[in-house]
């Protein structure tokens, strides 16, 4: 079957993949918006993580099909790696919390999820779970795991989880082919400097918000992807002639963060939701049980907010957000303190935009006639944008905005 998508056209699914898409674990994402509160500023931005997962899977498939002839895989390995990659990218956002990352503050302690230790570089310390923990839990220990085993041949839920977390499962290595370890390159397609996730969400978010920042030459980038082998491990590489397109991709993401993802309206409402989460006296919390977690999406959270007498819930529901008073003004904290002295509630936020997480993710290599070079050494873009851009903002309760401006002389 095919699913019509406004970004990638017809996305093909096998009958078994359709059954996995129809699972309650994936269907939940129909009711989780990709950009949370962004539709307050961009009315078209009501697209969902359901559509994004399908789109990212389509991109990952194009990437794999471009790489496969260069990897010299056995036919059985080729089909198995392709299918595992498709599922890993499809499911990479399964655990996302309702509306915003702010609701991760009401997730339970991570140990209550009982995610296997092998998915972590070291046993997780005492902390709250996050959406990535829930994603792995749903893949490994829910009805979806049973369906993966039933609907695929030779693919275990642990193989899918390995590509999501970047660590091999216990037992025989499922990503070894002809004496080489392909886990690094497959993981880079799921999450890395140039991954299917970003290649989909930049175009998708640009389309639905109506901005032009998220556009780049994805076809040229994919055509110029290749692989290199280092100490028995296979890594993702890019032909040098496509580096300009890659730089455009990086800048597109950078500008999307500054103009869309860090829009002042979204950021302000995320703080209100955070305050609700901190003060709701247990009336809304996210459960550790994976089956119970499926009942929590944007709709159920908004219903809880509408039922609540919590003042922060009332503000969110009634769209009485705090007003932006100042942005990147000197001494923002002192301005906030002056308002508090006058009995006016205000909060300050900092949003940090970075070009890349280079150095924190697996290296993308550039293939040149002279040899192979890490991308950070090949392009000067990382040096030019090495400093994070900070958007510092001050918000004030709307009922006293005029008074606040008089006090601060704004």
Summarize this structure as a short list of keywords or feature phrases.
410 residues; alpha+beta; Hypothetical protein af1432; 4-stranded mixed beta sheet; 3-stranded antiparallel beta sheet; 19 helices; 13% strand
Could you spell the SSE succession in H and E letters?
EEHHHHHHHEEHHHEEHHHHHEHEEEHHEH
Radius of gyration: 23 Å
Work out the helix count: 19
Q: How many separate structural domains?
A: 1
| Arrangement of strands in the largest sheet | 5-6-9-10
Structure description:
With 410 residues, the protein is α+β, with helices and mostly antiparallel strands. It has a single domain, classed as Hypothetical protein af1432. It has helices at 15-21, 24-27, 49-71, 75-90, 131-140, 143-151, 157-165, 183-190, 196-209, 218-223, 243-261, 264-279, 290-293, 298-307, 311-317, 332-341, 375-378, 381-384, 401-408; strands at residues 2-5, 9-12, 176-177, 180-181, 225-230, 233-239, 323-327, 346-353, 365-368, 371-374, 389-396. Strands 5-6-9-10 form a four-stranded mixed sheet. Strands 7-11-8 form a three-stranded antiparallel sheet, with helices on both faces. A hairpin with a 2-residue loop joins strand 9 (365-368) and strand 10 (371-374). The longest helix is centred in the N-terminal third of the chain and has 23 residues, at 49-71. 41% of the residues are buried. The mean pLDDT is 94.
Q: What is the gist of this entry?
A:
The protein has 410 residues and is α+β, with helices and mostly antiparallel strands. Helix content is 46%, strand content 13%.
């Amino acid at each position: 079957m095919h699913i019509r998508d406004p970004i990638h056209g017809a996305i093909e699914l096998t009958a078994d993949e359709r059954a996995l898409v129809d699972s309650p674990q994936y269907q939940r994402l129909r009711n989780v918006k990709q950009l949370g509160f962004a539709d307050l500023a961009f009315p078209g931005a009501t697209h969902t993580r359901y559509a994004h997962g399908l789109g990212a899977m389509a991109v990952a498939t194009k990437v794999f099909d471009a790489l496969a002839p260069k990897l010299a895989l056995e036919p059985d390995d080729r089909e198995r790696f392709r299918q595992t990659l498709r599922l890993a990218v499809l499911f990479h956002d399964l655990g996302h919390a309702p509306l915003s990352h702010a609701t991760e503050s009401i997730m339970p302690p991570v140990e209550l999820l009982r995610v296997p230790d092998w998915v972590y570089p070291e046993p997780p310390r005492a902390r709250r779970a996050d959406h990535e923990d829930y994603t792995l839990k749903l893949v490994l220990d829910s009805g979806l795991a049973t369906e993966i085993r039933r609907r695929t041949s030779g693919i275990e839920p642990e193989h899918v989880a390995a590509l999501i977390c970047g660590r091999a499962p216990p037992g025989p290595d499922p990503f070894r082919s002809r004496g080489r370890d392909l886990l690094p390159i497959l993981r880079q397609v799921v999450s890395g400097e140039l991954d299917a996730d970003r290649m989909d969400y930049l175009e998708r978010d640009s389309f639905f918000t109506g901005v032009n920042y998220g556009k780049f030459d994805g076809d040229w980038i994919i055509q110029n992807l290749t692989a290199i082998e280092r100490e028995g491990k296979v890594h993702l590489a890019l032909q040098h002639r496509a580096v300009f397109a890659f730089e455009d991709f990086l800048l597109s993401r950078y500008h999307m963060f500054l103009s869309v993802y860090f829009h002042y309206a979204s950021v302000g409402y995320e703080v209100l939701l955070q305050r609700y989460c901190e003060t709701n006296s247990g009336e809304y919390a996210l459960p550790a049980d994976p089956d119970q977690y499926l009942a929590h999406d944007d709709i159920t959270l908004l219903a809880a907010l509408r039922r609540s007498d919590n003042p922060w819930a009332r503000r969110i529901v009634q769209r009485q957000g705090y007003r932006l008073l100042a942005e990147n003004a000197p001494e923002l904290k002192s301005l906030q303190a002056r308002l508090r002295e006058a009995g006016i509630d205000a909060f300050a936020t900092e949003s940090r935009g970075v070009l890349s997480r280079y150095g924190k993710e697996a290296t993308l290599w550039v293939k040149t006639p002279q040899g192979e070079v890490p991308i950070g050494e090949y392009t000067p873009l990382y040096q030019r944008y090495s400093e994070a851009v900070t958007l510092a903002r001050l918000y004030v309760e709307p009922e006293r905005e005029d008074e606040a401006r008089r006090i601060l002389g704004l």
